[in-house]
Amino acid sequence: MKDSPELAPEAERVARHWRMNLRLTAALLSIWFVISFVLVYFARELNAVVSGWPFSFWMAAQGALIVYIALVCAYSRVMNRIDHEFGLAEGE
User: Fold this and answer.
1) What is residue 44's DSSP assignment?
2) What domain count does the chain have?
3) In this structure, is the dihedral angle defined by the CA atoms of residues 69, 70, 76 and 79, taken in order, positive or negative?
4) Composition of the chain by helix, strand, coil, percent to 5
5) Whole domain around residue 23: which residue ranges?
6) Nearest by Cα to 55 from 66, 40, 67, 70
7) What is the pLDDT of residues 50-85, one digit of tens each?
8) Cα gap 81→69, rounded to integer Å
């Protein structure tokens, strides 16, 4: 929004906050896509066995869930930090 000088400082701050939110969401969704589709699809070709189960099954049933929980935690922590940075945190 640098080319819009008529924006108030408050509007520019909120716009910067929104852009950071979109970048974070895009990065985390990219990781989600790789785990959900790419890694599980190519794991079938590894033919490895983990605890008696095929590796692709283990990745889909167990490994992906761990990554999803980590993504939610990462989003929460980073967004809290961004909210505090821009003065938009809850309770402020």
Assistant:
1) G
2) 1
3) negative
4) 75, 5, 20
5) 9-86
6) 40
7) 778 777 777 777 888 999 999 999 999 999 999 999
8) 19
